[in-house]
Prior knowledge:
MarR/SlyA-like
Amino acid sequence: MRLGNLETYIGYHLRLAQNASFRAFQRKSGRADLRPGWYAVLSLIGDNPGITPMALSRAAGRDKSTLTPVLRDLTRHDYVASTPHPGDRRSYGLSLTELGRQRLAELADKAAEHDRVLDEIAGEDKEKLITLLRRITEELA
């Protein structure tokens, strides 16, 4: 198949790599119900109990329109709970439920295994790759 201009587009290859990484992580986790990005969201909430959706959106690099359905799914699965912030009825904090903490612990082991595979692929270029990805994120944010 001809890719035309896409052959040299970094964004295209970033997306392909992300999709391949998500599929591999899903296979490794053994969970058909795992959606891409859930681990990162659960991890950020677990590390920052009471985090607001706006702060989570910034930390996860997701806009509200894509984060809202993820939070709805995680809440429906009883992985995440929300509690109103005192003094601000429009704001609420997110925390993991007991089931959410269990799921995160399971996924953390699988994520570490998955990252070791990515480390092998990146090899000695890992630090350079992360630096370039961070630079892309910072300059395009």
